[in-house]
Amino acid sequence: MAALGLNLNYLISYIVNFFLLYLLLKKFVFPAISQMLEDRKKRIAEGLTAADAARREAEEERKRLMAQLEAERAEAQQRVAAASAHAEKVKEEILAEARREAEQIRTNAVLEAEAEKQRILAEAHKQIAELAMLAAERVVGEGLDEQIQHKIIEDFLSQVSLN
Amino acid sequence: MSKLLRPKPLALIIGGIALLVISILFVRVPLPTILLPGEAIPGLSIGNFQITNTFVATILADIIVLVLAFLAVRKMEDVPESKLQNIFEWVYEIFEGMLTDIGGKEKAKAWVGVFLTLLLFLLFANWMELVPGIDSIGVIEPVEVAYAEKGVTVGYGIKHLGPFITLTNDQVKLSAEEREAIKKEAEEAEAAGEKYHPHEPKGYVLTPYVRAATTDLNLTIGLALLVVIWSHVIGFRRLGAKYARRFALPVITGMKPIDLFVGILEFISEFAKVISLSFRLFGNVFAGQVLLFVMAFLISFLLPLPFFGLELFVGFMQAFVFAILTFIYFEQATHSHAGDEHH
């Protein structure tokens, strides 16, 4: 044992020395380091969570705004469509009105023309009848009974007009 | 080849060879006295406690570890400016992670302190052998005194260099008759209650002030005893009486004969733990130191260099092995042999 240099005093002093070192480090150094590491880990985790939350929030906000924008666009489109439909309707109405008026005017014109024609025809009948009567008077010499006269002419004329 | 012929490598090679030649031809250093026990530093003691150079190294290693550790945690910052804080945090995190892999979170947290204290202390204790010149600064005393006290038989001449005294390479070996005479004189001096001092010293030896602490068996055995006993304390605290069953102590009835046999083996293995832990550390570091001595003795320049690198690695490795084995012993002590624990 002596050759190996073993000596109980030294042995114990080394043990005590190491144990003291251990106690000092354990009391003052290791907890500080582990506390620091833990705190930092927590802070980083918190930061990451906060960043995540912020990102999620921004995403939601963006979605909300997009939806709103979409809704507004759809509404505007609807409004434009409605307006254009209305315009179409108005156009149709105006056109129909115009058409109707034109028809009216045409109809009126036709009617008037017909009436005029009738009037002119009637006038012509009358004049022809009178001319025919005059001619007949001249031929017959004597005035025929006016009623018979008229009847004959009427028959004649109706035959003419029937042709 | 062509790479070696460029000016810079060429200059290095030539310079290296020149250094080797110079050291072989002109610079020869004495081989330091190699002693197994820690050497008492002459004239340095506290009361009855003779201070050895390994003890000085222990205190130095303590101081280095404490100063570094306290500097590291003096001003803890969340975003560390101090590299020391960074290094300590890094070391702490790496080894806590490693211990978590081995023994789980709870045990790693409980014993990372012991692990790191062992690692740091042993690291600096081991590396102290690497400080250049550490084994050549010390107290010079006559070889006769060294023989009477420690059995040293080889001394060297001395030379005055200004205020310093240095050993020369002139070796003096004490002959058998001289040893006898010294023994007698020393005994006479002791009987007379005086300190033995030769009239005309034939040679001198140097006792360095500092010698790597782990080259002292007292330290390594002390630490090994401490951690093995510690592991038993942990075992008893965690398992209670069940722990005793591992050693087949008659605490628990209903033992099978095989348990007795296993118990005896376990008992022996506890001693084996102390011996293997202590002698592994001691042997590696002591051998490393002798290796460095001998290399410097053979060729002073350049040759010891690769061995410094080797010893740097060995010093770390041995510290790590001691610390990790300690953790494993602690961890093992918490496992019951009764087989009622689920893993």
Largest sheet of chain A: none
Gyration radius from CA atoms of chain B, angstroms: 26 Å
**Total number of beta strands of chain A:** 0
Estimated helix fraction of chain B: 55-70%
Number of helices of chain A: 2
**What is the domain tally of chain B?**
2
pLDDT averaged over residues of chain B: 87
Q: Can you write the helix and strand succession of chain B as a string?
A: HEEHHHEHEEHEHHHH
Tell me about this structure.
The complex is a heterodimer of chains A (163) and B (343). Chain A has one domain. In chain A, helix 1 (8-140) crosses helix 2. Chain A is an all-alpha fold and 163 residues long. Helix content of chain A is 92%, strand content 0%. Chain B is mostly helical and 343 residues long. Chain B has two domains: 40-131 and 215-333, no CATH class; 139-207, no CATH class. The longest helix of chain B has 42 residues, at 257-298. Chain B is globular, with a radius of gyration of 26 Å. Classes of the chains: A mainly alpha (163), B mainly alpha (343). The interface between A and B is large, with 32 and 40 residues.
Properties at a glance:
heterodimer; A: 163 residues; mainly alpha; 0% strand; rod-shaped; B: 343 residues; two-stranded antiparallel ribbon; 61% helix; globular
